[in-house]
Design a protein that fits this description.
The chain is of the alpha+beta class. It has eleven helices and twelve strands.
């Protein structure tokens, strides 16, 4: 009961902080599902004429958060090697506080955190839907808080930060449920953000179930998705640039992810983080690597460098990919290309990401 009371307290605090210009409505009879919308909503959204670069967006975000007293912290290492091989979310910075109940975090504040996860929504053919990537920059604010009022203030801060990017409050919708979810030793209440018709992120109130006073907030979105919502450009062109039509999305996504993994010093191996790198590179057709990947790897390296310091320069990444492909040809039977199909020595079709 105390946990659900905390959910109701969060909604009351949001009402107090946002003020009368925001309207709260409940979408169900039991009063659990709610929406928060600006009273001047309904005007059409007009995207900006030019698309800001990744560096420009991150600079604007850093300055906007700083204006609200939230400083930028350094990224978590991509190799996590704890409960997961890789960093899959900036909220992992709060693990000591939320999972162990200690007054400690690995990082706090604004984090533009590169992450790798294989949970993106896919279509019936297994291809990633627009708006989803295997690797992306998790734009986050993660920090301990002393009260639920701090959580509500963070929502107001978030709306300010979004406004500095060009998102007006009248095009935003915030929705959630007045209920608490639980995952082992962590409980929370989640708010989702929509910009017009696109979900762009969430703001989560979190606490340790055994030590409820150990509270934190996690504001999360993706830099790529945020830019997509702002510009309304074609997703493939936005993320993959001039290479958008050079190969299927699965191949482009794999090269982009491999650039981050190899650039972070993670070398292919049989297990662990290196096993993830090997799995990702296996989705890249060997013939494409042999023809050369320098141009596309250099472009993706520049993207990632905007948010994190990569340990390996782009020529080293190309060499590592070539070595992995050469090693794969030794470890597995030789395959040849027949049109758009990858054919094994026994003449049967072999699955291939290129098709």
């Amino acid at each position: 009961m105390e946990s659900h009371s905390r959910a109701h307290q969060a909604v009351a605090a949001l009402r107090q902080v946002l003020g009368p210009q925001w309207e709260f409505s409940f979408a169900d009879h039991d009063g659990h599902t709610f929406k928060i919308r600006h009273r001047d909503r309904g005007t059409p959204y007009i995207p900006p004429r030019s698309t800001p670069s990744w560096t420009e967006l991150l600079t604007t975000l850093s300055m906007a958060f700083a204006d609200r007293g939230v400083t930028r912290d350094k990224c978590l290492p991509l190799r996590w090697d704890r409960e997961t091989e890789l960093t899959i979310s900036a909220v992992q910075a709060l693990d000591p506080l939320l999972k162990e109940g200690r007054a400690l975090t690995y990082r706090k504040g604004f984090l533009p955190q590169p992450v790798v996860r294989f949970t993106g929504d896919r279509d019936e053919h297994g291809d990633l839907l627009d708006g989803f990537l295997t690797a992306f920059v998790n734009i986050s604010r993660v920090q301990p808080i002393a009260s639920i009022d701090d959580y509500a203030e963070a929502l107001d801060d978030s709306l300010f930060v979004l406004s500095q990017l060009g998102f007006h409050a009248r095009h935003m919708e915030i929705h959630g449920r007045v209920e608490v979810w639980r995952r082992r030793q962590v409980a929370g209440v989640t708010l989702m953000f929509n910009h017009v018709d696109l979900t762009i992120g969430d703001l989560v109130l979190l606490w340790n179930t055994e030590h409820p006073a150990r509270m934190a907030l996690d504001l999360g979105t993706g830099l790529e998705r945020l830019t997509w919502a702002l510009t309304r450009h074609d997703w493939k062109e936005l993320v993959f640039g001039p290479f958008a039509d050079a190969a299927p999305v699965a191949v482009l996504d794999a090269i982009r992810t491999a650039t981050l993994l190899l650039g972070s010093g993670i070398t292919p191996s049989a297990r662990g983080a290196g096993g993830v790198a090997r799995r990702v590179i296996a989705a890249v057709p060997p013939g494409l690597v042999r023809l050369g990947t320098s141009a596309i790897v250099r472009a993706f390296h520049q993207q990632w460098a905007a948010s994190t310091d990569l340990q390996v320069p782009w020529p080293g990444i190309c060499s590592a990919m070539e070595e992995e492909v050469a090693g794969r040809s030794v470890r597995t039977p030789h395959r040849r290309w027949a049109g758009r199909e990858c054919v094994a020595p026994d003449r049967k079709e072999a699955s291939c990401q290129w098709s």
